[in-house]
Specification:
This protein is an alpha/beta fold. It contains twelve helices and eight strands. The protein has one domain: 3-Layer(aba) Sandwich (Rossmann fold). 38% of the residues lie in helices and 18% in strands. An eight-stranded mixed β-sheet has the order 2-5-4-3-1-6-7-8. It is globular. The mean pLDDT is 94. InterPro entries: HAD-like_sf, HAD_sf. It comes from Luteolibacter pohnpeiensis. Keywords: Hydrolase.
């Protein structure tokens, strides 16, 4: 609140014009939960099973065979090449509209494996309040995520109040086609850009064209975004969520394979990043429930 007052008070030496009040937020582990596995990965696995009758060859072809044998944990801890192969097979060759329908249908029926909640209810109530607070002060809020840009765009506006054009994420290549006489955009089974780690500042530059003055994340994958945001002159704010409430949510940091928080946590003090201690700082975790 002190930071916002500085940058929104006319005449202040730290005043920032509304056009430059850019706030960026990681998604997984920052706006919604990410344990025990990234939610889009669960979508990917369900999609493989759904498509498998049309691809009998997958029964003998890795990494698809591992998924169909019911060993998803092996895939989720696999190398990036295997995960990309699954993503391209499940996300590619669909029109943009077809992909949106697939994601919407999955979000309607899918449930978190531990809480039983719909994934769009696994969002963080304090972060929803923060987004609303910043927008009331004429900030423009963006998602900058390692997750798929088209996946997040399906639910971001309804869930967070962030429209599709303010989502930056990992993306497939795409092309324009005429199908049955109708112009469409087709998602190709080829990776175009990974929006994680050093990719996040690059993605912000490509999509937004302004350096943010506010950045929030929860893992080392957000380090470069936080560093780039807060290293320029003027008032800047960097925020890290530390997941340490195993009773109401999850507890993980330095040794986690999902959302690892190590270097960013170590450097937070010298970088002047605010660390939010979920266990002691948050009265409520999820909008519908405060306990697993």
């Amino acid at each position: 609140m002190s930071f916002v007052e500085k940058v929104t008070t006319a005449g202040s030496k730290d005043y920032v014009d509304p056009s430059q009040r850019i706030a960026v937020f990681d998604n997984d582990g920052t706006l919604w939960a990410e344990q025990p596995v990234y939610f889009q990965a669960l979508f990917l696995l369900d999609r493989i099973k759904q498509l498998s009758p049309k691809h009998p060859e997958w029964a003998e072809q890795e990494p698809f065979a591992t998924v169909l044998r019911g060993e998803p944990e092996k895939i989720l801890s696999a190398d990036e090449k295997s995960l990309v192969a699954l993503a391209m097979a499940t996300h590619g060759n669909l029109t943009d509209d077809e992909f949106k329908i697939v994601v919407r249908d999955w979000l309607k029926s899918a449930r978190h494996p531990q809480t039983g909640l719909p994934f769009t209810e696994m969002v963080y109530q304090p972060m929803l309040e923060l987004l609303a607070y910043l927008r009331a002060e004429h900030f423009k809020t963006f998602i900058v995520s390692g997750g798929g840009i088209d996946f997040i765009r399906v639910f971001a506006e309804e869930t967070y109040g962030i429209p599709p054009e303010q989502v930056v994420g990992t993306r497939n290549k795409a092309k324009y086609e005429i199908r049955d006489g109708t112009p469409v955009i087709v998602k190709l089974p080829e990776l175009d850009f990974i929006d994680d780690g050093p990719g996040k500042p690059a993605g912000i530059h490509l999509h937004i064209g302004r350096r943010p003055i506010f950045a929030a994340g929860n893992s080392d994958g957000d380090y470069q975004m936080l560093d780039w945001t807060t290293s320029s002159e003027g008032a800047r704010f960097g925020m890290i969520l530390h997941h340490n409430d195993e009773d109401r949510e999850f507890a993980y940091d330095r040794n986690s394979s999902i959302g690892k928080l190590d270097k960013a946590w170590t450097d937070a003090e010298t970088k002047y990043w605010t660390v939010v201690d979920i266990k002691s700082d948050w009265k409520t975790i999820f909008p519908t429930s405060s306990s697993k």
